[in-house]
Amino acid sequence: MAVGYRTPEEIKELVNQDRSMKVLIMGMPRSGTMSLVAALKKLGYTPYDFADRITLSHHGLWTDALRAKYQGKGEPWGRKEFDRVFKGFDCVLDVPCTFFPGELAAAYPDALTILNTRAPGPWHRSMSQTLFRVFSWPSWPLLARLDPSFIGVWYNHCRLTWQIFCNNDYSAESCIPAYQRHYEHVREAVPKDRLLEWEVAEGWEPLCKFLGKEAPEEDFPRVNDTEFFVKAHGWLWGYGVVKAVMNLGIGTLAIGGTWYLYKTGFVASWLSRA
Fold first, then answer.
1. What is d(CA 138, CA 134) in angstroms, rounded to the nearest whole number?
2. pTM of this prediction?
3. Tens of pLDDT along 233-255?
4. What is the largest CA-CA distance in the chain?
5. Which CA distances in Å does 135 have to 18, 25, 54, 170?
6. Strand partners, 112
């Protein structure tokens, strides 16, 4: 099943709507998250995902939230701050949101929490093929310096996120214990009567029972977004290159040349070797 992300126009329209928070997805990425999101959309929910954070330029705000919680810099986030970023959405997921299970459960006492799980070994292999692979591309630090207002904000946010999680050490020896600690933290932080531990293989029945929804007759969605994830960050990389060139003031010819290399597949070929 293909990944279905909203367009920037759709995202900007959502934030003009009022929705109460209903579901907190606190499992780590690559633990059936996108299949769960597809299912929740079919059930009528409006999830807040990484594409929404990029379009709405929220990464800088979340960096502030992480620094406040983990480094003691700034005011810790509460209901007011969460409402600011979640306006128009009734379901949240993915890092960095998953690093705030207790705060979110306290801010939204009527929301239900789903802790989507996956065996640690397969989880780490999937992360190594997607997030950790992308964040290891060697050109990100240079692009972050050349385009500090966009790539720089995003890259520094990602570095802080994974520094908190695993000290930016993507090995199984570092990540699997961190993964297990995260799940224990969620179990301790969220009231048990508002928490469902769930795996994709369980499908509709326990999910819908927990949410008080009627299970659809169709099969539970199975989303494999590995290829799309890498391609999407390739697009992000290409956009960053264009912005970096513009910031350097090299001119239209260089921009056109960069875009030509990207469109003709040169960049994709280079990234496959990165």
1. 9
2. 0.84
3. 777 777 777 777 777 775 544 55
4. 61
5. 34, 23, 16, 10
6. 23
